[in-house]
Amino acid sequence: MFKKILAIPMFLTVAWLAWILLHPGQTPLPKAANTTIDRIDWRPYSSEHLASLLKQKQPVFIKFTAAWCVTCQVNETLTFYDSRVIQWFKQHQVRAVVADWTDHNPAITQLLARHKRHSIPFYVMYHYPKPDRTLSFGELLTAKIFLNMVHSP
Questions:
Q1: 29: phi > 0 → left, psi -120 to 50 → alpha, else beta; which?
Q2: Which of 3, 8, 90, 113 has its CA 20 to 30 A from that of 130?
Q3: 143 class by beta-carbon count within 10 Å (0-12 exposed, 13-18 middle, 19+ buried)
Q4: pLDDT tens-digit profile, the chain (153 residues)
Q5: How many helices (H) does the chain have, and how many strands (E)?
């Protein structure tokens, strides 16, 4: 009986997430940017590419994601399609890197482990707000949470 009672909130959560993903125009999401013009230029992760970017001492943002990760997909919609976030990335010349862990790439697993993480979603920004500083973001991310964190001292 107890398991059946606990299944109800889980079912409702899955239904809500499915609704958000399948009906983005009908949800109270932030105004999306014009995706044909304004979008974040995500580049695929490689250790060599990351090392090259870090040498430049400019902000580098990495999103660890996977096709099978529902929370990652919701965070993507709520955060990285928001015009304010896109504008912030452009204004601060942030290099965007996507670490796609769909197939459990060992190089991405090692990078997660360096940050003491073993699951996704996970987000990290290097060299912001100043060189040699790292900013980590939680598993749940929205445009508001992102902008609050990057505007905090």
A1: beta
A2: 113
A3: buried
A4: 766 676 776 766 776 666 666 655 444 445 554 544 579 999 999 999 999 999 988 899 999 999 999 999 999 999 999 999 999 999 999 999 999 999 999 999 999 999 999 999 999 999 887 778 899 998 999 999 999 999 876
A5: 6, 5
Q: Which residues lie closer than 8 Å to 23 by C-beta, 6 or more apart?
A: none
| Three-class HEC string of 106-142 | HHHHHHHHHCCCCCCCEEEEECCCCCCCEEEECCCCC
Preceding omega of 153 cis (within 30 degrees of 0): no
Evaluated on CA atoms 6, 70, 92, 138, the torsion sign reads positive
First to last CA, the chain: 49
